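Example 3.
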Amino acid sequence: MAEEMTVKELDQVVVRFSGDSGDGMQLAGNIFSNVSATVGNDISTFPDYPADIRAPQGSLTGVSGFQIHVGSGKVFTPGDKCDVLVAMNAAALKTQYKFAKSTACIIIDTDCFQKADLDKAAFTTDNPIEEMGIRQDVIAAPISQMVKDCLADTGMDNKSMLKCRNMFALGLVCWLFNRDLALAESFLRAKFAKKPAIAEANIKVIHAGYDYGHNTHASVNHTYKIETKVKVPGKYMDISGNKATAYGLIAAAEKAGLRLYLGSYPITPATDILHELSKQKSLGVTTVQCEDEIAGCASAVGAAFAGALAVTSTSGPGVCLKSEAMNLAVIQELPLVVVDVQRGGPSTGLPTKSEQTDLLQALFGRNGESPMPVIAAISPTNCFDAAFAACKMALEHMTPVVLLTDAFVANGSSAWRLPDLKDYPSITPPYAPEEMKGHYTPYQRNEQTGVRYWAVPGREGFAHILGGLEKDGRTGAISTEPENHDMMCRLRADKIARIEVPDVEVYGCKDDAELLIVGFGGTFGHLYSAMETMNRAGKKVALAHFQYLNPLPKNTCETLRRYPKVVVAEQNLGQFAGYLRMKVDGFVPYQFNQVKGQPFVVSELVESFMSMVK
Amino acid sequence: MSNYTAKDFKKGQPRWCPGCGDHFFLASLHKAMAEIGVAPHETAVISGIGCSSRLPYYMNTYAMQTIHGRAAAISTGFKVANPDITVWQVSGDGDGLAIGGNHFIHAIRRNVDINMILLNNRIYGLTKGQYSPTSPRGFVSKSSPYGTVEDPFRPAELCFGARGRFFARAVATDAVGTVEILKAAAAHKGAAVCEILQNCVIFNDGTHESVYTKEGRSKNAIVLEHGKPMLFGENHEFGLMQDGFGLKVVRLGENGVTEKDILVHDAHCQDNTLQLKLALMEGPDFPVALGVIRDVDDMTYNDAVHEQIEEVSSKKKYHNFRELLLTNDIWEVK
């Protein structure tokens, strides 16, 4: 039968691993994406994990998923639906089947579809495939038993053996896509470097899974291959958005020659930034896990005054608490980066899910005239550049800056070509020149930029006070004088308005689009894919995707007015559309709004946008 | 010898009400700083909001007047980021113990090397006369016209409860006593809480009346000094003795009591039981304890943070961004 197997070439494929939260689906997914990326495929991944700390085993609420989109060329999203669904138990099949394409191949572990498993997953018959009306190819394999057989002579206990089930599924998927197991082996050996026995057991099981597919052909009649079309040579790693954010902060501190200080408080989905930075002591990174969100930001303001590159990381509910200290940095004109990894709100909302609902909070959520730059990261790897840009802006313009990411971008990952800091711009804070010694006051400004000078404590002849009270622009003393306050409000606003940011780029049919799609932040991949799909269908559509939200790029008005129709698509009820209407006279866009806590679905975007064009 | 005089630390003209305890304290702080001898440009004074939090505006040092209650958190970030600077954090009882209570206890618990001044006048002055978390039960104020129905915090108890390693107390009008404890706080490495009892002439006049004058203190206060017997009274005729689980006031010569029977103060004792008892004494049955009540050495948070950075740095092989990148699973596309 082996002769009859054919290898089909694919442009792209989406694989979704799902199982109980303890089944190691994230690891299996990570290895598959790394193996794919190593051969030069582009990857985009998205973990979908439950909010419960540990839901009961086998229950519907305890299902954890990990989706990987692998492409021969560029891929921009983790994909709407999957071509291969791995369901390690009945609950996973029940909850994840909706993510499977009609042509998908479904892999299940029949050992976890026993009566008790079916009951926990609320199946009413003993045939879940029929009960759910599944028509796709199903590879039903007794995975648990085969794993136990495979590891029988290792002396491992039952529980430890079953922990390797994920590798069997991974082996099967690797066979299906003709992946080289040597790469997976080296990842496993590195991961379990300190536990070689575990590494070898996992490797044994991965081979068993692969061989099972190879020997039985696993009830499918062809396997697949994804060739790499466009290779950009270089060294790569797989990086999540949160890790990329942490790396961007580290890189900026190094570039600026400053110590990096993070004041933070654990909050989903931002905590991984604190985790990542707290590991990097050998780079001199200082992290303080504070008593609350307020102290996280307040201590960062203190660190900024003391002369560090100061950062606080959080999610929306944390921003509510930090806003008073953020405002202190506004009036004191101190550099501070506030990372807001947006999640579903209001209040505690949907802690593990993704939204873009903090935009107006970031722009306006403080008392008084409180101008603050806002930058939004557009993809996991872009978090690095966005974090670097936020630090540069904060330090060079002496201002707090909000970096907006979201749960989707923060937890998703992509292959990332290692950057060389030589290619990044220098960061030069406006330190008070030595000539000011003895007559320095804190609100003297550089006339060109409107930025005040920074005198770090410890310098003789530069002692000064900063305060939360309004100050006289010349002397730095407390002032309630009406004209002075009016002037200071304008100076602070003007300073931010004058920050130069890159123009917004237009993709697609930029010369003759009938419809311009407008978005910001983490929805880039989905909007770009929707645009591409429509272009392929012959529709004249373009995309303008914003990273710099305050100040807006100089070409914003001109771009928005250039096209007959504009649709603003965002994961909220119209915050960016409203903001643009405030900034662009007469701007009346179509709107596409969703607040489901889930990434956009490209096909839904296309369907909606199609109705706006002829 | 210090190279500085009080004048080197002075700036501007204070705007507090005439007779306000803040004036007395400010003068003592200037004097203490001159005697301590840390340069003005190597000193930072950080406050929150309230009458007393205006103090940094009158300091010729690096200074920061911030937001309500957050001075301890801001000072923590400052000290960790720039440990070479001596940090003084100034709060009132509302700023430090009400809105800022959480930061107060955590800065003490972590033992950040900051001198934490708590100016306690048992009232909100800047908002014009509401009861504070240190106002006594039944206290009548604009926001408690029928008297409060809650018990106050006793700052020493909070400090000790948060594992405080240093606690001292002085009366604002007593320049000598105040300068003494400020110098002791500066010499102490770690979070050093100094409670300053002070008057609000407008909204809470006479709140510390029993100890506000020299005569009052001689009768109603005891100045504790490490290694000295706990004697007080105009002619040191009274003393403190242990009495079961508590303390008692005795008169020397009565019932055969001699100076040998009197407790000797041990500010360095790790066990804070007796120190807490001393700190909580109040009239009319007991004298109010002044001076350095507890002063115990311990590792500071900022030192621990930087020692850990040093230690990990010496073990790890990557020390810059490029080297960090290469610690990841890397693959090469050719």
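The two ends of chain A are 51 Å apart (CA to CA). The longest strand of chain A covers residues 100-109.
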